[in-house]
Amino acid sequence: MKLSKSLSSPWLTWLGAIIAAALAAPGCGSSPPNSSSVQVSGRVTYNGQPVGYGSLIFQPQETTKSSWGVGTISEDGKYSLLTNQPDLGLQPGRFDIYIRPPAPHDKPKHGPSGEEEVSWEKAMILNASYPVPKRFFSRETSGLWVNLEKQPTRLDIDLRD
After folding, report:
1. Cα 89 to Cα 83: distance, rounded to the nearest angstrom
2. CB neighbour burial string for 44-74, b if at least 16 within 10 angstroms, e if fewer
3. Are the CB atoms for 65 and 88 separated by under 8 Å?
4. Quick one: which of 74, 36, 39, 34 has its CA closest to 58?
5. Which entry of 24, 30, 80, 139 is 20 to 30 Å from 111 by CA?
6. CA–CA separation, 70 vs 22, rounded Å?
7. Which value, to the nearest 10 degrees, does the dihedral of the CA atoms of residues 64, 85, 69, 15 take?
8. H or E stretch including 11?
9. Cα angle vertex 139, ends 136, 141, to 5°?
């Protein structure tokens, strides 16, 4: 993975993060990939240990005509990308990748059966002790990117110091 610089302004990054966070919430507009969409799943680790909770964001570069991919990271570090535009889906091309830790100001998110997935109190504790360095929280500083092909992709991401 290479470090790449973006020319977008910081407010665009925050706007993208807000949109991505909204997409990560079940029932808030995200859709499973359609048949023409690239399917991506995997596991996120930091120095070999699973990263629990948070979101993994795949932001298309300007040359990629694709929707964003957002994967909610489970307690054991696994994720599967969803998209916000089922008619467009996740198309092959280059994507910048970054992580969003659980935010304590977010409202609790509920799973399919109505159970609370991450409570506000738990999100505060997770955010304070989140094991990933802040440089991975931004498209401009994460240095993570991938060229996705058409076939389903397993992409395990092991973040290192």
Report:
1. 6
2. bbbeeeebbbbbbbbbbeeebebbbbbbbbb
3. yes
4. 39
5. 139
6. 10
7. 90
8. helix 10-24
9. 55
Compute the chain's Rg from CA coordinates.
Answer: 15
Number of residues assigned to the chain: 161
Domain 10-159, classified CATH 2.60.40.1120, yes or no = yes
Mean pLDDT over 146-161 rounds to: 92
- Asked whether 11 and 18 are in contact (CB, 8 A), the reply is no
Record the pTM: 0.66
pLDDT band, very low/low/confident/very high, at 50 (cuts 50, 70, 90)? very high
Express as a percent the part of the chain with pLDDT over 90.
Answer: 39
Q: Where are the beta strands (DSSP E) in 39-155?
A: 40-46, 49-50, 55-60, 69-72, 78-80, 82-83, 93-100, 109-110, 116-118, 144-148, 153-154
Beta bridge partners of 99: 56
φ, ψ of residue 18 to 5 degrees: the values are -65, -45
21, 26, 30, 31 alpha-carbon torsion, rounded to 10° = 150
Q: Measure the CA–CA gap between 137 and 20, rounded to whole angstroms.
A: 12
